[in-house]
Design goal:
about 20% strand; homodimer; 2 domains; four-stranded parallel beta sheet; Aldehyde Dehydrogenase, Chain A, domain 1
Chain lengths: ~425, ~425
């Protein structure tokens, strides 16, 4: 189908989706879950084609793993659809209703956004996921997945549409742009007449490309150069536990800790023990001179030796780098002010934490650090829609408009004013 | 000052502005109001230079009037600043605070956006207005006004900055881009590193240009092709009152009614009397054939005659035109469905009204018409921040992200998650 036709149909479908009741939407989600499982062979066959092409093109192992579906992963997708069916529906909620002096009653009501465009990489699970969240919130979604997953996505979307048709719901609630060329993608990003919002999901390059090319409003998600600051009052064993968790519990995710900021008064007490624990997980430490020295002398005092591989000198580049790897940078500061300035300069507005026992330092950090999520004495790994209790996540917004931080169903809604009069005119 | 330097300083200032308490902000707003009044001669002298240049360049009378300042208008500006000082401060409000099963307390707190860019035309009053609203919400604002108002804006911004300095507040809370060239404006719109949001205020051309060129997130404001639908159950005298108010109470504003949709069952009873009343205000009627005929035969039955100037045949172009003039289009429909389709096709997502006595029609119209403000039995002219009780307005958003409809102070804020832990790590 032509891009323009896809967009027009999605817009048309969105009119109807916005008025569906929750029961109908849930029935369709459950039917889709069932169909994915019962038609798993078709999905696996399509996925095998993508994998074969990937292997032929020497796709990286990690990427092949992301692309790969199996019975368990299809069951997970289906379970995801069922979970979204179980969430409460934000559409229609009246957020406020006030009567003006002239008798007009003005209400603010939650409504779908309309048509959502998702641009993502070769992760077929995003296909089912994005459909479920957009559909539950009464939106039509147009998917533009990575070309490497085209066969898988085509099979998945065909099944989702079949499930919708079976429930008497407009199947254009979900559609796939099969032409994954740059030109068509660029054209898609300028379809302001039909698409209300674009949500890119993927690496920094993808997101930058969408932000710079799109004229449709974009919700930026993703990149996280997250810091943990250990102040001079910190409970150091707690600091070690939290830092290790934030760095190593899962590598390569946006809410992992990439950079440590250490008050000079605690560097000697903290750094040697922290280094030992991080090294157990093969994490390389890129530290500035004072913290480098703290590690070296601490380890030497214990009669140990430090490998050149595991302890490196940080350069200016390290402060701004989201490693997504077994590596952490360490910056020494002389004050909370210096810590806050450093973090505000190099962070990406995602998640930042302070480890402190000081009320004043905690409050200042929470107020003055500019990020979607600011923590006291907890791991940055909690920045996540499920951990926040939203029951779902469409991404983590690192911008300040519309939605900031983990985005659940509400982030996929807008509002409208509904005004009840009895003949009022303006004087 | 260079553009880059302006942006950097604004960002720097925004860090401090976000932590100012309300009393300090209010004192600075009141000081600014006082200074505008006491230094009115300097403002008027600068404005006279702009006016002189405008007259030399044969600027239109209406534009000259918008540009012109006098003692009363300066007093109004100052009064605007005082009013904003009187509004309650949304910054710091905690919108929710929940404790997760693991003991993490997760709060959602209202915070400033950071740096707001305003791009507008030659209306010096917007300068003071935008400053007041952005400053009250803890944002720095960078102003890019029309070149025709450059001297006026330079004088105003200099005074605002002087007032801030006098109160010990960073004067870079407000700055003006004095280089109004296209190149600099285009560069400004891509300063994503320093500017969090752009708000264009002005005609459709200005807004289109910003949307298509900016990489910074934009809040679209403005254009309103607003409809009123008179259904078959409408109280017709009420319909006439509301239509006349929405069309003529003020011409050339975005919430004025531009197009009428009339159920065929009431066209004969409604149109002749409506035409008579609209013609009293010199409003031209561009109607489709059925309503044209309804007016003609109704007027003829009364023994009257219709001038060719006041009654015209509508063309396809009329449905999509925001006249901002003494003109209204009229479309006949056979059903509510047809009315809703017509409105959803041609409206600009601003304000739409139905005149009806039917509960079912009212509900369907409110639910199915896709616009920021949907009315039952009231004039579209109420779409306004003051009429909605916000005490202020930075514009009317016609998009669905972040803010929709009249935008008050809250639209100039974002949120951040503040998370209080006591050592939690992710399992």
């Amino acid at each position: 189908m032509e891009l323009l036709e896809i967009c027009k149909r999605a817009k048309e479908a969105s009119r109807k989706l916005g008025t569906l009741d929750t029961n109908t939407k849930n029935r369709a989600l459950l039917a889709a879950a069932e169909l994915l499982v019962s038609e798993k062979d078709a999905i696996l066959a399509a996925n095998e084609k993508d994998l074969e092409r990937g292997r032929k093109n020497h796709m990286q192992k990690a990427l092949l793993d992301r692309l790969m579906l199996n019975e368990a992963r299809i069951a997970q997708m289906a379970e995801g659809l069922r979970q979204v069916a179980g969430l409460s529906d934000p559409v229609g909620e009246v957020l406020s209703m006030k009567t003006q002096p002239n008798g007009l009653r003005i209400g603010k009501k939650r409504v779908p956004l309309g048509v959502v465009g998702m641009i993502y990489e070769a992760r077929p699970n995003v296909t089912a996921d994005a459909f479920a969240l957009c559909f539950k919130t009464g939106n039509a979604v147009i998917l533009k997945g990575g070309s490497d997953a085209l066969c898988s996505n085509t099979a998945l979307v065909a099944l989702l549409r079949r499930a919708l048709l079976g429930e008497g719901v407009p199947c254009d609630a979900v559609s796939l742009i099969e032409d994954t060329s740059r030109e068509t993608t660029a054209e898609f990003m300028r379809m302001n007449e039909y698409v209300d919002v674009l949500i890119p999901r993927g690496g920094a390059g993808l997101i930058r490309a969408v932000v710079s090319q799109a004229t449709i409003p974009v919700i930026e998600t993703g990149t996280g150069n997250c810091h943990i600051f250990v102040d001079e009052t910190a409970d150091l064993p707690m600091a070690v536990r939290i830092i290790c968790n934030a760095k190593t519990q899962r590598i390569g995710v946006c809410n992992a800790c990439e950079s440590l900021v250490v008050h000079e008064k605690v560097k000697d007490a903290l750094m040697p023990q922290l280094a030992r624990v991080l090294w157990e997980s093969d994490v390389k430490i890129c530290a500035d001179a004072p913290c480098l020295e703290a590690v070296r002398s601490g380890v030497a005092a214990d009669g140990g030796a430090v490998s050149r591989e595991l302890l490196l000198e940080a350069t200016e580049d390290d402060w701004g780098t989201e490693y997504l790897d077994y590596r952490i940078s360490v910056k020494t500061v002389g004050s909370l002010d210096e810590a806050i300035s450093h973090i505000n300069r190099y962070n990406t507005g995602h998640s930042e934490a302070i480890i402190t026992e000081s009320y004043r330092n905690a409050e200042r950090f929470l107020n003055e650090v500019d990020a979607a999520c600011v923590y006291v004495n907890a791991s940055t790994r909690f920045s996540d829609g499920f951990e926040f209790g939203f029951g779902a996540e469409i991404g983590i917004s690192t911008q300040k408009l519309h939605a900031r931080g983990p985005m659940g169903l509400e982030a996929l809604t807008s509002t409208k004013y509904v005004i009840y009069g009895d003949g009022q005119v303006r004087a």
